[in-house]
Every structure is written in C-alpha cells, then in structure tokens.
Amino acid sequence: MDVEEIHNSQVREETQICPWQIVRLFDNFLRPLVHNPRKLFGPYVQTGMKVLDVGCGRGFASLGLARLVGEDGLVISADIQPEMLDMVKKRAARAGLSNRIRTHHCTVDCIGVREELDFAVAFFMLHEVTDVRAFLIELFTLLKPGGQLFITEPKIHVNRRDFENTVRLAQMVGFEISGTPSVRLGRAVVLVKPYGSGAS
Fold this sequence. Notes:
Elements (H helix, E strand, L loop, with lengths): L2 H7 L21 H4 L2 H5 L8 E5 L5 H10 L4 E6 L2 H13 L6 E5 L11 E7 L8 H11 E12 L5 H14 L2 E4 L6 E7 L8
Parallel strand pairs: 1-2, 1-4, 2-3, 4-5
Antiparallel strand pairs: 5-7, 6-7
C-alpha cells in the first residue's frame, strides 16, 4: 500500500460512535480488572504531567491517569458527547480527583485543546474517527517532543491489517514506535514524537 491508499483506508464517511446510554455495560466497576490504568499507563506517566484522554467515555482511563499525574498534574478528558463528560465530572468528584481532571467537549473533526501535552491516550476509540490522519496530525502537534501517544483498538472491531495501517499512517505523520504493550482484548502501540520534530 502506498501513502494515498493507506490514508484513504483510514478515512470513513461515517462511523458508529458508542452511545453514552450503553457505556455502563463495559465501563463499570469491573473495567479496572480487565484494563488496569496503573499497569497500562504507569510506565509512561509521571507526576506533574499534562495528559489527554481523548474519547474518554465515562472516564475509566481518566480517573486512573489522574492518580498517576498527582496533585501537580492535569488530565484533560475529551469527548464529543456531553453526557460522557458529565459522567466523568461526577466520578472525579466522588473520587476526590476534580482538581486534576478538566473535561473538554470536542467535535467530530477537531479535538480542539490548546495545551502542550506530555502524554495522550486513545483507548478503543480510533475506529470511531472519520479522518484518522487528521486526528493523528492534531495529536502530533499537541504533544511535546518526546511526548507519547498510547493507542489501543478492540480486536472485535479492528483487524490486524487495519491496525497496522493505522500505525504506518502514524509513522508517516512523524511518530516513531516506542513500544507495543499487551492490552487484553485489544491491539496496542505506544508512539513517540521525536525530539527535534515540529508539526507534520
């Protein structure tokens, strides 16, 4: 596949976004037993970091990330569904983490945050993005040099070939592969923005 073919394969006229009404079916008290945020993100996140959880849903990753960044860090929980963000706010308040989590309402075409990031997570959501290349370019621009992007996609929705094409597209944008962590039920890669690189 050449560059244009890979790009075209990652552009979708429409996608099915997981509706907020059913999110509790898979993001509930059992979720950390399957996807433990400390184990998944602990190797990459340090106290004081500024982190983005894009497509955050009701916030299982955001809550875990907030514990990792500590009192001096910040987690930006971004989603296109306001109902998801309301759930994140309530969960953060109950967990005593409101001072570390800020919600952000993004659009289908743009994440829209302005902060420079140390780390970003796209957990089981990239297959819902209409233009993956544009999405990756925006994340590349937001990350500091040396900043990392953790992508994982569900095996049930994304086959190996499509996932590999996503990784190749990320490399074309300017990312380098820094790791391939194991994620239950998923395919995963950690990408890094190289030092000395600018926006793609």
